[in-house]
What we know:
The chain is of the alpha/beta class and about 850 residues long. About 45% of the residues lie in helices and about 15% in strands. The protein has a 7-stranded parallel beta sheet, with helices on both faces. A 6-stranded parallel beta sheet has the order 8-13-12-9-11-10, with helices on both faces. It is globular.
Amino acid sequence: MNAVEAWFLETVGEPFAFQRESWAAQRAGESGLLHAPTGMGKTYAAWLPALMGWCEDHADPATWAEAATEPLRVLWVTPLRALASDTEAQLKKPVAALGLPWTVERRTGDVSAAVKARQRKRLPSALVTTPESLSVLLSYADAREKFRRVESVIVDEWHELMSTKRGTQTELGLARLRRWSGEAGRTLSVWGLSATLGNLEEAMVTLVGPGGAGGFEGAGQAAEGPRSGGAKKADTADGVGEAQESASRAGGGRMIHGPGRKAVEIRTLLPADVERFPWAGHLGLTLLPEVLEVLEEARSTLLFTNTRSQAEIWFNEISAARPGWLGEVALHHGSIDRKKRAAVEDLLRSGGLRCCVCTSSLDLGVDFSPVEQVIQVASPKGVGRLLQRAGRSGHQPGKVSRVVGVPTHALEILDFAAARDAAERGEIESRRPLDRPLDVLVQHLVTCAMGGGFEARAMLAEVRTTHAYRGLSDAEWSWCLDFVRRGGETLKVYPQYARVVQGEDGRYGVASPKIARNHRMGIGTITSDTSIAVRFANGKKLGTVEESFVGFLRPGDKFVFAGHLLELVRVRAMVATVRKARGKKAQVPRWQGGRTPLSTQLADAVRARLDRARAGVGPGDPVEVRAIGPLLDLQAAWSVVPGAGRLLMETTGTRDGAHVFMYPLQGRLVHEGLGTLLAYRLTAEAPRAVTVTVNDYGIELLLAEPLGLDAAAWRELLSAERLLEDLLEALNTSQLARRAFRDIARVAGLITTGFPGQPVANRHLQASSELFYDVFTDFDPENLLLDQARREVLEQQLEVRRLRASLAVLAEAELEIVATERLTPLAFPLWAERLREQHMSSQSWQEQVGKMVVRLEAAAEGL
């Protein structure tokens, strides 16, 4: 028996069948995707084959101590820095126990400069890193030599990466490593690890490439690259299409499935009295006593929130309610200082925390075995997200994962019931890979020029082996190459944009050390609002907040951050100096990403639950549905309960004007696109002002006068004809595209975010990117980055595909147009949401909403 397998049997136990299958597949040099529930042992299924192979090559354990330390053999790519630290510890266990001459290290943004400098001279035997750090390593001239003996690459939590530009960046990095392996006569083994994902086959193809394992070599030999000049988009490089087709037939990956779905227990905390007129966020903290009781039931709990703002609030409320738990309650999110996060993670591993309030910063496969349960505050918005978070508890084979839902308003009670329905049916969200993001390709070309250079024809063939760029046309390739050579037609007179030059040997390299230095500091695709460091006057750093939040504060204003009540002293050089404050009233920082919409799967499950509730709520319904029974009964009494195959539209008059409430039940983003489309078509039809408000359940259209439209007129307004044209007219698309272009310009290297300690202010980045946008629009309208900005707006911000599918469903739906005397339970949260957006003061908003609740409850009591 292999020494590694013997160690596993003694330490972990009998391997699962999927682990043995994975060991055999990797030993055979295959590539593919390993899909298994959280906590079932995917890490050792992927890691141990490399050690097994080494032990078989060095059969005598007596020689291991004298054996030379192995160079880089395994590359482990992970999406999160917290996950990198945990993975490093897991990989080290068998190495240390067996005394193998292997080193295991990580390289992420959290690693010190000294460690990175040492790794520049010699990489460890196994390196745990992120897509960004991998690209940085590929940018060094000796990258090929450093990576020449890599045998396998493991991409952890692939489902989190593949639908983002970080996933595309990973695809390009893998293509580079595959090429080097192929030229050395070896086949690189690439494996992805995934738990909750709906489109597993597509995920595997995206990871291993359209040619599958070993499919690169033929494509590389056959490619001739584009001719000079502007080739037409429809053309292909000589031979590349045939080579890709052959590689696809010969290649392919292997799918390995773990045991059946992990047992997950989902329950919901319910208030004693569910309000019949819900409004967003109102219910959450009223359940604090019940949450405290749940926390007392377990030794260790992760309490997840959807936003960093919610995490700050809940941490402070729990700490204030249980002062005796001082030191047992912690806060963890991505804006908190790295050292503080690491300390919290260590306490979780050791079982030293009763509760950790966190965000998606702890979503992924970090192994905190002491965690016995998970609490999810607010709707999970997706089935996969809820299961992913639930899996942080019972993180061992055979253990049950437990998650407790805490709704923040009454309709979210239904979300938890619907999520459980979908989870039991195995209806998990899919993640779609990106198609040809040229800003990422442009960045990669400069990276490769620095990392030993490239020859154009071979580079094109390499790029086309990725799923993202499998359809890259000659014209697009020529444009990208021209863009890095001279900045394109518009920027050719500025030498700083001539980043790549062609040598006498025909290979492309970087133009100057200065350009290389600037590029290396800007490598990556993560873009967000510029961060402001938060420090005490003595220099102690607490973390970062977004510039857009600090921009609304003045010296003396109070805000809550990292578990402290702080007072702003001053903002200077991108640093907010603070001091501790007293009192209770304070603002909570805002962070981007707080408006996550319901997924398609969860929205479908909600519609199905409501459809069943149309006939009435009975003892056979889940406890959550019975809890909101009074709300649904009142909705049915005053209007109709919406359901599958129907579109409910309510017309109501208030002193604000004439309201139209409709309930497609498709999620916030689809409703934003649909609401804007309807407003545009209504204003194009006649001069009128329309105010649009949306939430995950419906849309409010507010007008000065009633529309009086019949079903036929509404069907025409809801038509999918001219959808794209009307959206482009309706949504000041130039402004949306400008905002999208800022991130594209950053990734493509047109603008920089500054140097360490000298970041560029967000407003300056926006101004710089808008200047490029205007110049390209006026003088280079065919610039492909402009086209990409428009595509990203339509595909990502407006979800045009999902909107078109929704309109197709609504075209077949029965329209139920109901005139109501007052706001119904489903209309009320939309009305309250619009009111909040119009109020500067949250206090006056709450007072006005509260008064409306009293009036509506009085009307309901009169039934």
